[in-house]
Amino acid sequence: MDAECNIILIGMPGVGKSTAGVLLAKATGRSFLDTDVWIQTREGRTLQEILDAEGLRAFCTLEERHIRSIDARGCVIATGGSVIYSAEAMGHPMGRSEKQLEPLRRIMAAWIRRPADE
Description:
The protein contains 5 helices and 4 strands; from the N terminus they run βαβααβααβ. The chain is of the alpha/beta class.
């Protein structure tokens, strides 16, 4: 696998993307980025505080903006569970312009699924 290729983990909230991401990053010698932590750090408040104050629609817009600002290479990236609702965020591999994307077309995405009763 290309050293600059990002491994992007997607899935519903609470399925273990962050936990699996840390383990995968250690196993592959890559950096780890959790987009939920990225957003909280930049906003200076928790995701729940953002949701309570602004609502889901505004949160998704905010999440999309922050995800599109990420410029990462060779990382394991755990996305927030609601990122799947944004075509822009899902279709844009962590903030790259179309010109920047050309050498990075090889992005591995993993959908983490877990039964609801676990």
